Amino acid sequence: MSLTVTQFKKDFKKRLHEKYAIEVEDASNVEWYGALGSLVKAYYSKSLRKTHKQYIEEETKQAYYFSIEFLPGKMLKSNLLNLGILDVVRDGLKSMSIELEDVMEAEPDMALGNGGLGRLASCFMDSAASCALPVHGNGIRYDYGLFKQRFVDGYQVELPDSWLQGGNPWEVRRENKAVEVRMGGTIALVPDNSGNLIPRYYNAKVLRAIPYDTHMVGYENGVVNNLRLWSVEIPVTEEGNYLTLEERQEVENITAVLYPDDSNYDGRQLRLKQEYFFVSAGLQSIVNYYLRSGQAIEELPEKVAVHINDTHPAMCVPELMRILLDEAHLSWEKAWNITVKVMSYTNHTLMAEALEKWPTQMVEEIVPRIYQIIQEIDRRFVADVSEQVGCDIANRTRIIQNDHVHMAHLAIIGSHSTNGVAKIHSDLLKNVVLHDFYLLYPERFNNKTNGIAERRWLQLSNEELSGVLDETIGKTWRKDPGALKLLEAYRKDKKVLKKIAQAKQHNKKNLAAFIKQEYDIEVSSDAIFDVQIKRLHAYKRQLLNLLHIVKLYLDLKENPDRHEQARVFIFGAKAAPSYDYAKTIIKCINEVAAMVNHDPDIKGKLKIAFLPNYNVSLAEKIIPAADVSEQISLASKEASGTSNMKLMLNGAVTLATLDGANIEIKDAVGEENIVIFGLTTEEVYQYYRNNNYNAREIYENDPTIHRVLNAFIDGTIPNISREGQEIFDSLVKYNDEYFTLRDFNDYVKGQETIAAAYQDTERWGEMCLMNIANAGRFSADQTVERYAEDIWHIEAVATEE
Ligand code: AZC
């Protein structure tokens, strides 16, 4: 959009007057933010209405991305960038003595997700709008987002994230789009006048679902899509239908908190209610919208695609069946045909404990009609498959097994597409984890390697590097990340390498200043900034990183004059509140940090900064300043990873196992521009097959490992008598589930390679450049375009800009 500084200032002052009755100079940054946010929303409202109208008039097929998590982070700067008014607004504010960065401080980080899965959903929202693709999100408007993390005595403490407290300028409550969702009670099927069996509900709770819409602004293209988040409300009850205080509380809980767990299946009833709540509300509103266009329900798959992001929304399958059977009165066969065509599903993890299974009794209690439909889907599936392929495979793949509903099975059987999120992950799905399903439906399986919104992860968060890129290769990369490849021509150009290095140095200084100011840790920007930022999980092996740090520390203690490349190890990681082992690792990292950071013998060669409350905003500060990207999960465990992509895009060199998308990063940058170590997936599986891994033997025979592990139990590291023992036992006594000790020496070698490469400035510069130049293929723009073409069968709409 076009906007002048003068016009902006006028608009901004007017907003402040109207909204807060205050002058610019008297307002706080919270008020500046509230005014600016609502002004920006007004700026894009015309495009929003236009996009909406265009979809209706052109009868565009639209896709709906159902996800129980979205992790957008802050939206102000991103919206300004995408509207093309970032500079004008920044200048306009400056002329009123306001720094945009101060205004941004007042925006809460919208964290309605745990980690990779939720952030991916938000990157997709940004990319879909930017590619003019008709894709909308559908999720839950949690009153409280992911907990805020603090460290007290080195332990993680969780605080509530009341992100809505100060108001939210981006959302619009759509009162007239509310729908009713039924839960509980019992069901009887009774014939209607024409003899159809119609379900009658007895004692069901009727909940009111209110949508709050947040708009997804495309990058300089005039497209604005919608992220619809549902909130529960107590319905206005008929007389006599009075809810007790407890019952009201129970209802309100449904959209109160995000489950702070991204890996373990949590069997709490409330989670199941959340899942059904947003699935039912979302699908009802989609079908209502579709039917308003006057088209026949039979044609639904021509106009609507529904994506099931991991299994949490898998009840989309029986819920759409319910709508088609009970409300549109279609036959089972017709309804099933439509449902399978509309639905598609992404799997995000191979970890067995994350595969959702619900006790049948619980499903029947909470959503009785849905349970009936699941039973019927299962019955027909078993009959078909047994007849065509045999009973064994039918029994292994059926939805209801051992009194549990297997959500992944439901999603696969009820949809036309199942994809993994990196090549190796999709191959493991086909060949190992979901092999039986692959035999039944080979055509349904496909891969869609994850991607990242490069606008946020480069243009917004790394303005220094963006400037260097503009100067060197022009600005096309801003619209087309593939154009980053042009940078490769400069790999030997010392001037360009120097400018990139200077941009990095600038960002490192900023981060160092932030770390000093917030956490009083002194770090030198001349040191390697070695970064591991992700959820804390045993399989991601933050512990491997820590063991190496302890080794470096012990080496330096033994020989304080030893020449050692100075390093700063930066961690960001939350642990699920109930995941004790992950919390133990956090405590140990913090205690090692306290020990190392204050030891004068180390002479500053080693620093550890475990930054609390890792979230999208913190990631935006850390990533531009990273030299080394730690992607060290045990091969076969990380489905894809996305921080690996963000870090490479910002010129960090990856130290990685051959896991998830690391393999594709290696292919993109070439072996000489990445440092690979550790077991391969095949080797890991071989250990499983032969059952011959022996961690104790490694501990007993490898003097380095022996010494490092002993430091956890002999008092060398203070204040971890319980935690150190737990770590030690997990590795030695319980045989090191994630082969940390097996990969240790190889990892140390990898770290040595990194340090040597870093000392050769030109060599390092070239590695960084090659990473930036080849990150374009991990743009989420490309990824959503693949989803659009192969899975959703939707097309981009025409845009003017
Ligand atoms: C994550 C995967 O662990 C990560 O490898 C992947 O990059 C990301 O999804 C996006 O696909 N999974 C989750 O965050 N959570 C679950 C339940 O899988």
From TrEMBL:
<dbReference type="GO" id="GO:0005980">
    <property type="term" value="P:glycogen catabolic process"/>
</dbReference>
<keyword id="KW-0328">Glycosyltransferase</keyword>
<dbReference type="InterPro" id="IPR011833">
    <property type="entry name" value="Glycg_phsphrylas"/>
</dbReference>
<dbReference type="InterPro" id="IPR035090">
    <property type="entry name" value="Pyridoxal_P_attach_site"/>
</dbReference>
<feature type="modified residue" description="N6-(pyridoxal phosphate)lysine">
    <location>
        <position position="646"/>
    </location>
</feature>
<dbReference type="GO" id="GO:0008184">
    <property type="term" value="F:glycogen phosphorylase activity"/>
</dbReference>
<keyword id="KW-0119">Carbohydrate metabolism</keyword>
<comment type="function">
    <text>Allosteric enzyme that catalyzes the rate-limiting step in glycogen catabolism, the phosphorolytic cleavage of glycogen to produce glucose-1-phosphate, and plays a central role in maintaining cellular and organismal glucose homeostasis.</text>
</comment>
<dbReference type="InterPro" id="IPR000811">
    <property type="entry name" value="Glyco_trans_35"/>
</dbReference>
<dbReference type="GO" id="GO:0030170">
    <property type="term" value="F:pyridoxal phosphate binding"/>
</dbReference>
<keyword id="KW-0021">Allosteric enzyme</keyword>
<dbReference type="GO" id="GO:0005737">
    <property type="term" value="C:cytoplasm"/>
</dbReference>
<dbReference type="Pfam" id="PF00343">
    <property type="entry name" value="Phosphorylase"/>
</dbReference>
<comment type="similarity">
    <text>Belongs to the glycogen phosphorylase family.</text>
</comment>
<keyword id="KW-0808">Transferase</keyword>
<comment type="function">
    <text>Phosphorylase is an important allosteric enzyme in carbohydrate metabolism. Enzymes from different sources differ in their regulatory mechanisms and in their natural substrates. However, all known phosphorylases share catalytic and structural properties.</text>
</comment>
<protein>
    <recommendedName>
        <fullName>Alpha-1,4 glucan phosphorylase</fullName>
        <ecNumber>2.4.1.1</ecNumber>
    </recommendedName>
</protein>
<keyword id="KW-0663">Pyridoxal phosphate</keyword>
